[in-house]
Amino acid sequence: MHDIGASLSPIDGPLPRTEEVIAARVKALESILIEKGVITTDVIDRVADLYEKQVGPQIGAKIVARAWTEPDFKARLVANATDACREMGFGGMQGEDMTVVENTDEVHHVIVCTLCSCYPWPVLGLPPNWYKHPAYRSRVVREPRVVLREFGLEIPLSREIRVWDSSAELRYWVLPQRPEGTEGLSADELQALVTRDSMIGVGVPLSPDKATVGSTS
Ligand SMILES: [Co+2]
Question: Which domain range does residue 40 map to?
Fold first, then answer.
């Protein structure tokens, strides 16, 4: 009799896997691909560099800060996020079709992918682990107010919460509200207030007194 469990290596532990286990698997896979000549270390280094330094929530933050300071740009962003981002030179894989939903005093938006982990990579980078977790994916739809509270975000009962289900065809992200007391700030200073979580809808931007310049997540 073939026992599936016995054929699994010790690193195939129960879910959720620890970061050490995941890192070990990635390293093993990387070695095999290099050994077989499928990829080179150079390619891996370039991809890692791309997602660590060039693609990340700082891109989305830059776009949000521009939308806060340029009403015409904001209108274009909300009308067609893919085109507005391309205008700034941002787009590509996992961001071919993006829609930006704008938070207001009346409605708070939050994004999810109920099926897997669809996410707008070119503007937000790679999704956080919790975004891929089944608990977030199911609960944020059923009880968004409770889930947001667990993230430390209390949405007034008077404000509607809308949950947007991203897919491979269409990826949503959030244009958060510009914080109070930021009238005098430049776009660069505003960018530092925009967190990744605020563009997912599970957080809000930093307030100017709490921000450290250069921090975007
Ligand atoms: Co998905």
Answer: 15-54
